């Protein structure tokens, strides 16, 4: 019955005349130096995401729309090893009115003010070093209610690999003193979870609590903190950040963030082989437009515990639909490949040195 109702909604939207077909094509060419053993030193990737959007409008500013997108990727290494895959990227239907939004399907869910070191990266894989801006989605039903101009209430339910659904809620409050957010999520997925897009992995169902805040004045300031409670251990992450635009040339935006992560053993639990973590990371980033088409960005990341630093530099040229991005990453090598291998593509650390040329075409 539920499937028939969803099909009916899709057919209702299909009768609309508001039809949009768009997509993103990208080509990535990378040269590695000092990467892990048995890894290719040259790699190329081609990808395309076709996206179909349909919109139907009703009276009283109500709308019903859907989006379907599929990700196609092919990767080739210098060893002439070619791998290809395709998977759904977006697949959702949404109802919207003046004070309510309901969206069902494979969708992007992201929140929190932090930009790089993000304790609230619970459902996305946004990476500052990826010029495509792509992120994984989650299968969910998400509701957002806006009772007035300063308050928004979120709730969601998500598919998990267990028989139970994961669920959560979020409240956002906008005041003259800044914007606040409180978030809770109960995760019934017992598989491995990456913590804060860092090379830290924990397994099992868990409960998550978070508080975030942002104030925009002469200097932008934000805070983002979360606690993830597993059966044997909890992970506490906190980030503070600030940004300011220097009145030099066309304006240089300076952004800085510092994250502290700490683990605590749950009372009475035996941690066994679970190591304790107590570490601090810092990032400073500068970006500046050069003329109308060019953008330069530089980033430095510190790992205070291991006393190492990583560097990232990107120069981009953007036209109406086409962009060229040249980047250089100078990063520390990985100490233990087994601990990082599954998550290499989601963090600035552990890549060795990379020279990257990415072409992106949006239509």
Quick recap:
The chain is built from 2 helices and 20 strands. The chain is mainly beta.
Helix-strand makeup class: mainly beta
How would you spell out the order of helices and strands?
HEEEEEEEEEEEEEEEEEEEHE
Beta-strand content estimate: over 45%
Integer average pLDDT: 87
Primary descriptors:
363 residues; mainly beta; 18-stranded antiparallel barrel; two-stranded antiparallel sheet; 2 helices; globular
Describe the structure.
With 363 residues, the protein is mainly beta. It has one domain. Helix content is 5%, strand content 59%. The strands form 2 sheets. The chain has an 18-stranded antiparallel beta barrel. Strands 10-11 form a two-stranded antiparallel sheet. It starts with a helix and ends with a strand.
What's the structural blueprint in terms of helices and strands?
Layout: H1 2-14, E1 18-33, E2 42-57, E3 63-77, E4 82-96, E5 100-107, E6 138-145, E7 151-158, E8 166-175, E9 178-187, E10 192-194, E11 201-203, E12 206-216, E13 220-229, E14 233-246, E15 252-265, E16 278-290, E17 294-303, E18 308-318, E19 322-330, H2 337-340, E20 353-362
Antiparallel strand pairs: 1-2, 1-20, 2-3, 3-4, 4-5, 5-6, 6-7, 7-8, 8-9, 9-12, 10-11, 12-13, 13-14, 14-15, 15-16, 16-17, 17-18, 18-19, 19-20
């Amino acid at each position: 019955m539920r499937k028939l109702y969803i099909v009916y909604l899709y057919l209702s939207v299909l009768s609309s005349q508001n039809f949009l077909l768009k997509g993103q094509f990208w080509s990535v060419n990378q040269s590695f130096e000092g990467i892990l053993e048995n890894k290719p030193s040259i790699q190329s990737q081609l990808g395309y995401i076709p996206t179909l959007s349909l919109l139907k409008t009703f009276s009283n500013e109500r709308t019903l729309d859907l989006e379907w997108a599929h990700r196609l990727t092919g990767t080739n290494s210098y060893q002439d090893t070619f791998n290809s895959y395709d998977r759904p990227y977006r697949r959702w239907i949404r109802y919207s009115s003046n004070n309510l939004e309901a969206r069902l399907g494979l969708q992007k869910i992201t929140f929190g003010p932090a930009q790089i070191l993000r304790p609230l990266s619970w459902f996305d894989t946004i990476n500052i070093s990826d010029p495509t801006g792509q992120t994984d989605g989650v299968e969910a039903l998400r509701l957002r209610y806006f009772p007035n101009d300063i308050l928004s209430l979120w709730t969601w339910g998500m598919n998990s690999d267990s028989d139970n659904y994961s669920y959560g809620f979020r409240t956002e409050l906008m005041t003259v003193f800044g914007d606040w957010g409180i978030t809770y999520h109960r995760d019934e997925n017992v598989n491995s979870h990456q913590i804060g897009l860092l090379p830290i992995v924990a397994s099992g169902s868990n409960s998550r609590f978070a508080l975030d805040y942002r104030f925009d004045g002469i200097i932008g300031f934000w805070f983002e903190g979360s606690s993830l409670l597993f059966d044997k251990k909890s992970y506490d992450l906190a980030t503070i950040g600030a940004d300011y635009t220097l009145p030099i040339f066309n304006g240089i935006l300076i952004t800085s963030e510092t994250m502290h992560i700490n683990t605590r053993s749950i009372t009475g639990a035996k941690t066994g082989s679970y190591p304790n973590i107590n570490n601090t990371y810092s990032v400073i980033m500068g970006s500046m437009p050069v003329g109308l088409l060019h953008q330069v960005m530089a980033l430095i990341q510190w790992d205070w515990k291991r006393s190492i630093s990583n560097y990232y530099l990107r120069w981009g040229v953007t036209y109406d639909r086409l962009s060229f991005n040249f980047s250089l990453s100078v990063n520390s090598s990985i100490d233990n490949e087994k601990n990082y291998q599954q998550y290499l593509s989601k963090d600035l650390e552990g890549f060795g040195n990379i020279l990257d040329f990415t072409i992106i075409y949006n239509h």
